[in-house]
Amino acid sequence: MAEIEIDSFEELQEVEKIPEAEETPKTPEIPEEKEQVSDKEKLMRSLVSDDDEVDELTIDSVRQMLDAAPRWFLSQWKMLLLVLAGIFLYITNGYQAQVEMMKENELEAELKDWRYRSITRVSELTQLCRQSQLEQKLREQGDSTLAPSKVAPYVINVKE
Fold first, then answer.
1. How many C-beta atoms lie closer than 10 Å to residue 40's C-beta?
2. Most exposed: 33, 71, 107, 119, by fewest CB within 10 Å?
3. Helices marked H in 3-159 — which ranges?
4. Is 32 within a domain?
5. Is residue 24 assigned to a domain?
6. pTM
7. DSSP one-letter code for 31
8. pLDDT 10s per residue in the chain (160 long)?
9. Residues in contact with 146: Cβ distance below 8 Å, sequence separation at least 6, in sequence order
10. How far apart are CA 150 and CA 143, in angstroms?
11. Is residue 110 within 8 Å of residue 118, measured between CB atoms?
């Protein structure tokens, strides 16, 4: 066949009207020696290849893949089991960490509450134990034996 260059749509219509010369004998097509690749093998190759093209993964394509390579899946059952166990451990660890964080926050809030209570009790006890407060309570009760000292306290020096 002769090659024809077509620049416009009109030229294409003219070329289609011209009948081809019947002088060239048609040669019977020789089947190529390449292997016929089944749909299953194409699907497996597309899943394993590093191409950026992603075929749609449908139920039928998954069935075809499972029919095409049952030995591959059977040989990879240990790896699949390991991946599933890893996913299970990851999720479990996440939930456990979340529960522990909630407990920690709860305990911190309780500790803060107990600190405030302790500070309140210490300040109340300090208020009640002051010398001036004790003297005032004793005077209210009628005890006249307690009086402030008129002599300054002594300082004792200890030699070591």
1. 16
2. 33
3. 9-17, 39-48, 59-68, 70-75, 77-129, 131-141
4. no
5. no
6. 0.38
7. P
8. 455 666 666 665 665 565 554 455 555 555 544 456 666 677 666 666 665 555 566 777 777 766 766 667 677 888 989 999 999 999 999 999 999 999 999 999 999 999 999 999 999 988 878 877 777 888 788 776 767 778 888 888 888 7
9. 135, 138
10. 19
11. no
